[in-house]
Amino acid sequence: MENLLRKLDLTSLRLFVAVCQENSIARAAEREFIAPSAVSRRIADMESLVGLALIERHTRGVTVTPAGQTVLRHARRIIGDVEAMGAELSRLYAGVKGHVRLVANLSAIVQFLPEDVAAFQRLFPEVDIDLEEQHSPDVLRLVRERAADFGICNRIPGAPGVEQLPYRRDRLAVMLPARHPKAAARQLSLQDIAGETFVGLRENSALTQQLAAQAAALGATLSVKIRVASLDALCRMTHAGLGIAVMPQQVAELYLQSLDVVVRPLSDEWAQRQLCIVLLDQGQLSATAATLVKFLAQQG
């Protein structure tokens, strides 16, 4: 019996089950598109291996012996398990089950990803998504190091070795205390506010670097009084009158009812931003990650 695992194959088990279901070697052979002699030989080999008769052959068909009933019961279970494995692997291949590691910048996480990921998981509830917040430069670094399946961040010009697929667009706005002298303006440019006191995000954030670069292009250096780690803290610092802040308009408008602030669009052309999905090679993604990428890319 110790040789069963090595010598008893799935094809023989499948043919044996067919014979038992049809009560006939001939009908089983016809159903399985194989010669009756080959089916008979397979069952004879199984009987030799088991050491017991599995069926009794008659002129009008076969009957299953007690040993055959035992083999039949286990064969059905084995075949069912293999079919279940195949179905589960098919779901993995189709991208509906598995694990994806995604890194994204703060703007994507706060504005868009909660709703988009929730919509994806309603379609594919068996996909586990590990979402980590990182600044845009670190998103790119982690993708290049293959520490994440893909990332989402602001479009990065001149980033060799990565693909960038459009995801969503956002617009920057200025948040000011409600009683600020410039609060009456309908919109503001960076030139209009360059001389103000700012509260800002930490220096390694993409938004901080973008603002510094645009201010330098105007020949100015922004006066940043306080730096914080989150957009929520940025809004509360502005509410307290510690300075003005530049942030995604969609985020800023969430605080209009709860804080004593106003939000004005930033009119500069560069304030319209493209968020991108960044990855090394779409062809090397797992089926699960590729399905999520395709879904997110269709949301823009």
Word description of this protein:
The protein is rod-shaped. The protein folds into 2 domains: 4-93, Arc Repressor Mutant, subunit A (Orthogonal Bundle); 98-300, D-Maltodextrin-Binding Protein, domain 2 (3-Layer(aba) Sandwich). The longest helix is centred in the N-terminal third of the chain and has 29 residues, at 66-94. It has helices at residues 4-7, 10-22, 25-32, 36-50, 66-94, 106-111, 113-123, 136-144, 190-193, 206-217, 231-239, 249-252, 287-297; strands spanning 55-58, 61-64, 97-104, 126-133, 150-154, 163-177, 197-201, 223-228, 245-248, 261-265, 272-279. It has 300 residues and is of the alpha/beta class. 33% of the residues are buried. Strands 3, 4, 5, 6, 9, 10 and 11 form a 7-stranded mixed β-sheet that branches. It has 13 helices and 11 strands. InterPro entries: HTH-type_LysR_regulators, LysR_HTH_N, LysR_subst-bd, WH-like_DNA-bd_sf, WH_DNA-bd_sf. Belongs to the LysR transcriptional regulatory family. GO terms for molecular function: DNA binding; DNA-binding transcription factor activity.
Main attributes of the structure:
single chain; 300 residues; Arc Repressor Mutant, subunit A; D-Maltodextrin-Binding Protein, domain 2
- The end-to-end distance, rounded to whole angstroms, is 61 Å
| Tally of individual helices | 13
Would you report the number of β strands? 11
Helix content: 40-55%
- Name of the CATH architecture of the largest domain: 3-Layer(aba) Sandwich
Radius of gyration: 32 Å
- Give the class from helix and strand content and strand pairing: alpha/beta
Largest sheet: 7 strands, mixed
Q: List low-confidence stretches.
A: none
Q: What name is given to the CATH topology of the largest domain?
A: D-Maltodextrin-Binding Protein, domain 2
Assembly type of the chains comes to single chain
Counting structural domains, the number is: 2
